[in-house]
Design brief:
about 280 residues; mainly alpha; 2 domains; about 75% helix; disordered N terminus
Length: about 280
């Protein structure tokens, strides 16, 4: 005869909240140039959803650089083409992680309206905020469901909803979640009509997604042109280096060659930074 097993709900245990550890990051909070680069790298790894430490991605990039550079050295036995191949190989894992982060953020943004609508329906049943969050987290698929489950587990460990949800926008890279976190925090502190606020927020996010989709469709040609402006010069340089390893040596042997190459690289760096900033401002959601 099967035993009658009843599942008891998990009660918050504030005494265990102190054992939660922070993520291991390179950024130290100094706010200088090097620290901002480290912070960007930390956010890239965190928002990609890979679940690895930043040092793992650095080691993978170094191994890829060694593999690509070593292969080119075996084929051509030229240090310049080997260095160029190593640089390209180092950035291959970073490009893959950038693609994974963008795809994950798109999925989370598309899941937001349905998740907020379900959270509003759960709030109408009279459940507490912790119970609503736990219910919605279990019903929402990944990747958004995994982030909500982490918040629900933190609240079960004894953290307040404000502390459990505070870094949700940073972990996902979706700035729209700041509005959701603020609404939930204010409701937890002061109360109010949470269901009505969530319904309006869900409709606002649907309108925002529709607007961003139209904006990206209208600016797709401009963004493609900007990406080509950055990648084509690097691709042409790599083609000549791999095709004729002595090409750069002959170019650098003359004064005008060194001067024109230096000016071109400087303009490419400044132009790339400018274009990347424009694309980042356009892609913010």
């Amino acid at each position: 005869m099967a035993a009658d097993i009843t599942t008891q709900p998990i009660k918050p245990r504030p005494e265990f909240a102190g054992i939660l550890k922070d993520d291991v990051r390179f950024s130290s909070g100094r706010q200088d140039t090097a620290d901002r680069v480290n912070g960007w790298f930390d956010q890239l790894v965190l928002q990609s959803g890979l679940g690895v430490q930043p040092v793992v991605l650095i080691l993978l990039s170094m191994l890829t650089a060694l593999a690509v550079g070593g292969s080119i050295f075996v084929l051509q036995e030229n240090l310049l083409s080997t260095a160029f191949g190593a640089i390209i190989g180092f950035f291959i894992p970073l490009a893959v992680v950038l693609y994974l982060r963008g795809r994950r953020q798109t999925q989370i943004l598309n899941q937001l309206p349905a998740m907020i609508g379900e959270l509003a329906r759960a709030a109408r049943t009279g459940r507490s905020l912790e119970q609503c969050m736990n219910l919605v987290a279990n019903d929402t698929p990944n990747p958004l469901g995994g982030e909500l489950q982490l918040c629900a587990r933190r609240m079960a460990m004894g953290l307040s909803p404000e502390a459990a949800l505070r870094d949700l926008p940073e972990r996902t890279g979706i700035q729209t979640l700041n509005v959701l976190v603020t609404a939930l925090t204010v409701h937890y502190q002061t109360g109010g009509d949470l269901a009505g606020v969530l319904d309006r927020l869900a409709q606002t996010i649907r309108d925002r997604i529709s607007f961003v989709g139209r904006l990206r469709a209208q600016t797709s040609a401009s963004r493609a042109t900007s990406i080509l402006m950055i990648t084509v010069p690097i691709g042409v340089l790599g083609f000549f280096i791999l095709r004729d390893p002595s090409y750069m040596q002959r170019l650098m042997s003359s004064g005008w060659g060194r001067y024109s190459t230096f000016v071109a690289l400087l303009l490419l760096i400044f132009g790339s930074i400018w274009v990347v900033r424009i694309l980042q401002n356009t892609a913010k959601s």
